[in-house]
Amino acid sequence: MTPRNSTKLIRVLYLDDEDNNLRSFKAAFRRDYEVYTANNTEDAFSILKTHKPQVIFSDQRMPVTSGVEFFNAVRQVFPDPVRILITGFTDVNDIIDAINKGHVYRYITKPWSEAEIKVAIENAYDLYHTRKQLRTKIEDLEKTNNELNRFVYSVSHDLRAPIASVLGLVKVAHLDVKEEQAVSLFNKVDQSVHKLDLLVNNIIDYYKNSKAAEEFVEVDIENLVDDVLNHLHSGESRENVHIQKSVNQNARFFGDYFRIRIVLSHLIANAIKFKKPDQDRARVDLKFAIDAEEIHIRVKDHGVGILHEHVEQIFKMFFRGKDQMAGSGLGLYIVKEALAKMGGSIDVTSSPGEGAEFHICIPNVSKDSDE
Amino acid sequence: MSEFQVEYCLLIDDNVVDRFVHRRLIQHHKIAREIVEIDSGKEALEFLNDALEGKKPMPDLILLDLMMPEMDGFQFLKHYEMWVQRSKVRPYLFMVSSTEDDRDLKRARENRHIIRLLRKPLIPSLLREGIDQNSDLK
Questions:
Q1: So which domain of life are we looking at (chain B) (predicted)?
Q2: Is A305 helix (H, G, I), strand (E, B) or coil?
């Protein structure tokens, strides 16, 4: 039973055209509950308005409006109170209909017993209370969720501007200052700020992936790759990567362009991040195979590869390899999430020292869009 | 062929650090011979109008920041549209921004005056490439 403040009684309204019934109801329950009675719907509505009862009883058979009709009208204006019909056995079809349509919570047959009504009131109040709590919780959660999203988004954007300024300043510093010690300090600043930039960008991508609606467009592979390279985050500009691309296209491809771009950007950024130390630029082979059903993309790098014991874990949030190079631990997690939203899949084969090959499969939605 | 890619560059950006960075990178990579910094869209429009009347040199390269107070990059471009109709010249115009907002990226792609949206910090080779690829449009 829901604990209640004992000084606050449950408010109950009873509507019946027979004053005798009203009187006996009131006499029976007025000590335990705050009882309001009405012998016509107009009075009932004005009680609903001023006293906000939590439980409403109504007789089914009344001269002008039936109980079910009354409840249906109440429901439009006061959805919260729990509605209970009091009726004789003769109205079975009306009752079934009313319960199925959700107009009433339950019914009680005449003649009612005091115990029966009490149980009905207590149960109805529990329901009322639980519904109310649930609604408040949902509203709170929605509000918090919205605020959080807005917060993350604006923080990420406002952070990126000064980060970009610092990165620019470091570039200029490298042009203007050649003194060895200073250069080594600039490099360290550069590395740290790049890391920060990467993290902020990953937060933005994560946010976008969780928020953006799916938008299917025809994807042109040439444009896509170009776009991906333009989108590489500052630490990994397209100068740092050599792309070898092959396209085997047997059908037009329609898909969620934005998420496919996120997936490829992160994989290529990873290839750059994990190139072998003696490699000047990362080498990435991109193979696209498209048919009417799906697109297969193979992203093969020639970098340091992934340790066997890590292969299972790299798609987990905040997983980072042991080495210093590792980033925020968000990149591949975002990749996996984005693919999950598209109904796609990803797997990886790798041996340390030999690079890694990611194999992505995304459904071609062209069939859906043709309909 | 001049040793500079273009003669006269206009930097429109409210952030003094970014203007400094862009000036230095453009100088170093010999992209423009002369660089003028302007810190708001409104003043930039005045400058362009003066250039039409011959009171100021005509820029052949413009780097336009997106997020600026009062008049942002896209608002500036609405006025710029009218200016272009009068001027009959079309400077190379790049938008430069740290934005990650896809709506901005999309708007920039769709705006016919913007050659490309370049992310901050500026990568000079991309600017150089963008000018080269569009030199036939002049």
A1: Bacteria
A2: coil
